[in-house]
């Protein structure tokens, strides 16, 4: 396999020379080519033949940093507008074409300094992606109208409610930006802006913003993947080369006033646990001090090996979770510490403890080993981020470097600046920038939030449209001369090139003498190895009286072995530049490890130790008991999670292990004993019930020797039988959880579906894609794009070993709760009543088939797919046969599975929101009397 992506001359961790001294190996080099078109568009090309896919990533150098007062959130609103109709592409057509072509990671994003648009497509569809992106750049204004603007204003306001106002601590975090920056600073407001400013945006404002900032000379495009550079460069010239330049854009020159006196704010939110945010203004991205503070953030709050975790969470147990980050931006950066209190502890305690840790770091500095741990973790995270070509992967990283440094190949310099950081550098940066008088402290406390951003009355927000824009009334018709002259050849989408050949990974298996299955996939693209130990027992194996036991057991694995304490495990993993995690799903318990190629052996030592020899120390059991109770308290603050747990309870009932979330219930957490945990581990963590799935830069022979040495002595034992009983959910079809004052309603429309081994799987995937699995699906087009009820809606089948749930999920405007449910049932009925039209069937079917290669970009993706084969007893060549099975799906088969599995009378509606406001909307829908459940998703206990 020819790899052109990285000339990897070394790897991240320190290695020894012949004399035994520690030396840094050579750093990775990205093989890219950068050119500039005559109109100023920067073109960055990377050839990588790992997979037959191509990532297309465009950055426009505009964000809130360029906004004018009174138009906060405008850059983000405009990001949404770029997905509306253009001269040659009617609204929705681009999404349908791209998804039908097999696109993955199709989206856009707005940062403080830039706006990005990206797609990952099969390599034979590169020209389609360029056609879409070019028409947005060149011909958006030709058909932009008030209807499109009003629709996206509604969508963005839904997004603000969902991601800021209804998100736990969202308004608290927003208050931190308000405290750090003055009102006239572009970083003062949330990137998403305010309701008032979003609503007051005029069509003429949109037109002027586009004309000023969306020209080719203010943009850069990265194309990374299975390309020929010369041919790709010619295609970019064809699609973008004729576009006119916009006026030159001066980079913002905005001075950020320093903070010379501590600023303090208290904000109330619908949360149960206090949280403290501390923020400082720090040097801009890639300037002196930026890397030093990134290392300081890792030392203070980077996982279980960090100082704040060890002191506040582990030792004193006054905090539920801690985090620290250096957020690097163009005008200035911010250093933020946020800590959530453990139940029964106050924000004042947290602040005093944080101050003590900061004082110690200022006065004594970090140790050499702490700095080395932080560097190794940051470098591994950076290296793993470029495993992926699209999304937030390699293409985006090159555009990021290009924006902030002018050098797309800055990766090597980025690693070098990290490696140069010393303990003295960290101490100096902390002393210089993280001073008490130079910070803002925002305390989030339980209470009723005060939103100083009321929506304007509809009559007060009538659009103001210039005379030049009044003609633009019908999307899809050329009604304005626009900026660029028409070019008739652009009217039709380009044809796909020859379909590339691809064989999905199958993996090679071998079995140890004790019965442990090992599944291996060799992938030398990067010096990384992803390892997953998968046990075929998850929450579905919980006893009836102890929901959450599987998750508690998995959590305890990291908390000490016969020879390693919990802090020692965390420190050793971080020192290796590795990442270790545990968790559960309905059908599995998992231990996941990401390590460098050079450190896989010692990392596997730790992994094997926690799996084979966990000690379950009594003190650690009590620590984790308190932690899980805290997680459960936080879970109650999140409406979408509450809806998911309430839906599980309504479908399966309180006597079924699937009737709960992975945490279980507070009574179960408080009553579980050490013997219960040890018993679950002994019964289920046996080699015949497990598989070790390894994907990465390691040969089969080397892996076999490593695994034999570390897992070969795992005592053989018989795998326990499955024990799930029949579901016994509620007869009620309407379930409501009251959250007084909530501005949105978290909805779940759900029923019990089907098991993973169903022969209907291919038809179900195609049917669900058309209904709600794709962005261009019927549900999303109706409720988001047409009605503006929600920021997004999706549907899926959770396919377990025994029938899992079918779920339609969305957070909708409170005043549109009833209307949203009505439209959902309407779309479900339409899917049952008529076969998919030929074009819709082809798009949904092709989306499933052609997107498959994009689902195998990273070692973790490959490992998860191979683990699925083991968990569900699928044939080894399952993924090789799957494309043909999907291609064979017919419209009658889609309608048949819709009728079989989408039965309206069996669908339950779960609504989490303001009961007083939403129940009158839901009662006329014929769902019967509402059943009220608590924020744990359970029926309230009967009164004595």
UniProtKB/TrEMBL annotation:
Annotated region (Disordered), positions in chain: 445-504
Signal peptide: 1-21
Entry keyword Signal: yes
Domain of life: Bacteria
Keywords from the UniProt entry: Signal
Biased composition (Low complexity): 458-479
Alphabetical list of Pfam families matching this protein: Peptidase_M16 (PF00675), Peptidase_M16_C (PF05193)
Peptidase M16 N-terminal domain ranges (all copies): 43-183, 518-635
KW Signal (keyword) present: yes
Residue ranges constituting the Peptidase M16 C-terminal domain according to the UniProt record: 203-378, 671-846
Gene3D superfamilies to which the protein is assigned, alphabetical: Metalloenzyme, LuxS/M16 peptidase-like (3.30.830.10)
Family of the protein in this entry: Belongs to the peptidase M16 family.
Identification of the protein by name: M16 family metallopeptidase
Organism: Massilia consociata
Native organism taxonomy: Bacteria, Pseudomonadati, Pseudomonadota, Betaproteobacteria, Burkholderiales
């Amino acid at each position: 396999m020819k790899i052109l992506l990285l000339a990897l001359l070394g790897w991240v961790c320190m290695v020894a020379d012949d004399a035994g001294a520690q030396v840094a190996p050579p750093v990775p080099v990205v093989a890219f080519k950068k050119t500039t078109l005559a109109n100023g568009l920067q073109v960055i090309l990377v050839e990588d033949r790992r997979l037959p896919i191509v990532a297309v990533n465009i950055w426009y150098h505009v964000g809130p940093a360029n906004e004018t007062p009174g138009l906060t959130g405008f850059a983000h609103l405009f990001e949404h507008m770029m997905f509306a109709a253009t001269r040659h592409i009617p609204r929705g057509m681009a999404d349908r074409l791209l998804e039908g072509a097999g696109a993955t990671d199709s989206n856009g994003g707005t940062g403080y300094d830039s706006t990005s648009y990206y797609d990952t497509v099969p390599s034979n569809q590169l020209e389609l992606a360029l056609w879409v992106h070019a028409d947005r750049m060149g011909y958006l204004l030709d058909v932009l109208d008030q209807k499109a603007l009003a629709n996206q204003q509604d969508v963005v306001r839904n997004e603000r409610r969902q991601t800021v106002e209804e998100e736990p601590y969202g308004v608290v975090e927003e208050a931190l930006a308000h405290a750090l920056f003055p009102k006239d600073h572009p970083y003062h407001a949330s990137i998403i802006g305010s309701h008032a400013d979003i609503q007051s945006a005029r069509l003429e404002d949109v037109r002027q913003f586009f004309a000023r900032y969306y020209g080719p000379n203010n943009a850069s495009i990265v194309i990374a993947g299975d390309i020929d550079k010369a041919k790709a460069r010619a295609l970019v010239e064809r699609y973008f080369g004729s576009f006119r330049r916009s006026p030159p854009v001066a980079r913002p020159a905005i001075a950020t006033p320093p903070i010379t006196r501590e600023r303090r704010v208290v904000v109330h939110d619908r949360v149960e646990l206090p949280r403290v945010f501390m923020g400082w203004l720090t040097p801009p991205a890639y300037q002196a001090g930026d890397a030093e503070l990134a290392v300081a953030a890792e030392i203070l709050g980077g996982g279980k090996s960090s100082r704040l975790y060890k002191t506040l969470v582990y030792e004193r147990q006054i905090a539920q979770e801690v985090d620290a980050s250096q957020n690097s931006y163009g005008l200035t950066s911010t250093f933020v510490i946020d800590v959530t209190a453990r139940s029964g502890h106050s924000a004042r305690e947290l602040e005093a403890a944080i101050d003590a840790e900061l004082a110690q770091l200022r006065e004594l500095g970090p140790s050499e080993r702490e700095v080395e741990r932080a560097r190794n973790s940051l470098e591994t995270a950076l290296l793993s981020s470029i495993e992926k070509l699209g999304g937030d992967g390699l293409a985006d990283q090159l555009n990021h470097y290009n924006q902030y440094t002018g050098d797309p190949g800055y990766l090597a310099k980025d690693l070098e600046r990290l490696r140069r950081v010393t303990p003295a550098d960290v101490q100096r940066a902390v002393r210089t920038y993280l001073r008490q008088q130079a910070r803002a402290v925002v305390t989030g406390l339980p209470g009723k939030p005060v939103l100083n951003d009321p929506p304007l009355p509809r009559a007060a927000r009538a659009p103001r449209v210039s005379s030049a824009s009044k003609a633009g009334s019908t999307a899809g018709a050329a009604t304005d001369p626009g900026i660029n002259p028409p070019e008739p050849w652009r009217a039709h989408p380009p044809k796909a090139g020859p379909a590339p050949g691809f064989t999905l990974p199958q993996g090679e298996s071998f079995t140890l003498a004790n019965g442990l299955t090992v599944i291996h996939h060799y992938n030398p693209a990067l010096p990384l190895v992803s390892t997953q130990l998968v046990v075929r027992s998850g929450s579905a194996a919980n006893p009836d009286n102890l929901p959450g036991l599987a998750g508690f057991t998995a959590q305890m694995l990291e908390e000490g072995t016969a020879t390693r304490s919990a802090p020692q495990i965390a420190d050793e993993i971080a020192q290796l530049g590795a990442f270790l995690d545990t968790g559960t799903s309905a059908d599995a318990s998992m231990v996941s490890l990401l390590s460098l190629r050079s450190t896989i052996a010692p990392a596997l030592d730790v992994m094997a130790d926690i799996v084979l020899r966990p000690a379950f120390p009594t003190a650690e059991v009590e620590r984790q008991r308190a932690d899980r109770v805290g997680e459960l308290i936080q879970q109650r603050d999140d409406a979408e999670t509450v809806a998911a747990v309430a839906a599980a309870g309504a479908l399966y009932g309180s006597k079924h292990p699937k009737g709960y979330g992975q945490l279980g219930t507070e009574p179960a957490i408080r009553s579980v004993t050490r013997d219960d945990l040890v018993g679950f581990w002994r019964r289920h963590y046996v080699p015949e019930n497990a598989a070790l799935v390894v994907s990465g830069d390691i040969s089969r022979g080397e892996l076999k020797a490593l695994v034999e040495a570390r897992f070969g002595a795992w005592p053989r034992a018989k795998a326990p039988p499955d024990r799930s009983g029949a579901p016994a959910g509620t007869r009620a079809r309407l379930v409501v959880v009251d959250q007084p004052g909530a501005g949105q309603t978290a909805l779940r429309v759900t029923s019990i579906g089907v098991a993973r081994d169903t022969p209907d799987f291919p038809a179900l995937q195609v049917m669900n894609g058309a209904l709600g699995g794709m962005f261009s699906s019927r549900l999303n087009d109706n409720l988001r794009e047409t009605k503006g009820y929600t920021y997004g809606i999706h549907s899926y089948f959770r396919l377990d070993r025994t029938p899992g749930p079918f779920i339609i999920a969305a957070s909708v405007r409170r005043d549109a709760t009833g209307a949203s449910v009505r439209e959902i049932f309407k779309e479900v009925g339409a899917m049952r009543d008529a076969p998919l039209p030929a074009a819709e069937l082809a798009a949904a079917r092709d989306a499933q088939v052609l997107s498959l290669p994009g689902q195998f970009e990273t070692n973790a993706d490959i490992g998860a797919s191979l683990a699925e084969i083991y968990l569900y007893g699928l044939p080894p060549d399952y993924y090789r046969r799957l494309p043909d099975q999907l291609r064979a799906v017919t419209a009658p088969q889609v309608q048949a599975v819709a009728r079989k599995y989408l039965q309206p009378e069996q669908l339950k509606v779960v609504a989490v929101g303001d009961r007083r406001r939403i129940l009158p909307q839901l009662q006329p829908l014929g769902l019967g009397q509402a059943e009220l459940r608590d924020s744990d998703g359970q029926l309230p206990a009967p009164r004595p």
